[in-house]
Write a structure and sequence with these properties.
12% strand; 6 strands; 2 domains; DNA polymerase, domain 1; 234 residues; homodimer; elongated; Rossmann fold
Chain lengths: 234, 234
């Protein structure tokens, strides 16, 4: 595929599952949540109901761990017909705190890649989720020094990106976004006329899945590892 | 007091309890929380323990309604020695959703003041708390059109303001902050060398209280109503 990155001045990096591991901890917590509720329902049903609850609450709670914990509690009450024990609620609160306080595990090649790009491009973290969580992860990651700054978006739709590029005075044809989610990091970026590189993570949250029909045919580069982007940006 | 705002190009407005009512809803929710727990403890003890819980969790949860709800649940379990009923937990979740979904009630004179300032200054909302909540409130308030953009800070300490002014290329001597909290909107701003106007709201969260000793003697203007700032900015 022909791709041309010669106008690029600014690169936006998604953070969760692009710079560091994230989805894995959500999956692990869902496993533990299902174990806590195993006397009430099958694992499959628990997974399904928790996901439905998250989607129902998404507009109110937005993305991030705190909303996820609130949805787990509501789901536990629902699934157990209000019989879930008080100590299980305490366990759910603890699962949430453990997620928030989890050490940051960088993905392979991230630091090497950023250090090679930092002098030639303006690098920005562009993530959705909880502001405090994302700032904390960036600080713990040791990657702060490579980034001009962090932008936390309440969502990653076209209008969110447009407003952000406007605010940062970045032309769409100067902007490249790199991330693991086709839905959040690639498709809206291509739709506003900027460039995108997709680097899939092995685990994708159901909410971030897109059907093949939605994938733009004439658009983005897909790579296996972050350091491969260096070949295209020199 | 002699104050000189002639270099000012950019005005930062705190949002909660400066542009619209906020603290009142937290106080109302605390009242309802105390009623839900009245069979276990006195109102005074419940208030104290909830506040302690919020402070204990602040580093992990940050500011905002979701963290407050999680702290209410943890506090209810604690105060009742794990005897709180499941339906009370559901009630607490509902209190939180009601807060998030509350209509926005503008403070007096806000719209008139912003409309008079918008063409002469760059106006920015600078708030701490939850990004999605704050964006939603701004949209519901109908005030978006007056602001260049919204900056949600994970905290409002000197280093947060410094990083933000750097990022926005704003000189400290061009910047004026307006807000209801001495601790968050006034003192750190004066300490970095920018200007501040304090407009107290009738209710202040205990966490935002400062002692008289911390109040800089030679620094800021204190006004009763937002529209009074127009007299100083012409």
């Amino acid at each position: 595929m022909e791709v041309n990155f010669e106008n690029i001045t600014t690169i936006g990096f998604d953070a969760d599952d692009t710079l560091w591991v994230n989805e894995t901890y959500f999956r692990d917590t869902e496993e533990k949540f299902a174990e806590l509720l195993e006397s009430y329902e099958t694992k499959n049903k628990i997974d399904q109901e928790l996901f439905k609850m998250e989607m129902k609450n998404l507009e109110l709670y937005g993305y991030g761990i705190k909303g996820f914990v609130l949805s787990m509690i509501e789901s536990a009450l629902d699934l157990s017909n209000n019989k879930i024990s008080q100590s299980t609620i305490t366990e759910i609160l603890k699962l949430g705190k453990k997620m928030i306080d989890h050490p940051v595990e960088l993905l392979e090649g991230v630091e090497e890649t950023l250090s090679q790009l930092q002098n030639r491009f303006r690098l920005i973290v562009m993530t959705k989720g909880d502001l405090l969580d994302q700032e904390r992860k960036l600080e713990r990651s040791g990657l702060s020094k490579y980034f001009h700054h962090v932008e936390v978006l309440s969502d990653k739709k076209e209008h969110n990106y447009k407003a952000l590029l406007d605010h940062l005075n970045i032309n769409v044809n100067e902007f490249l976004m790199i991330g693991n989610s086709l839905k959040s990091d690639v498709l809206p970026i291509l739709n506003i006329g900027a460039k995108a590189i997709h680097i899939p993570f092995h685990t994708t949250w159901a909410h971030e899945m897109v059907s093949n029909d939605e994938i733009d045919q004439n658009g983005h580069l897909k790579l296996n590892e972050i350091k491969e982007i260096l070949k295209y940006l020199n």
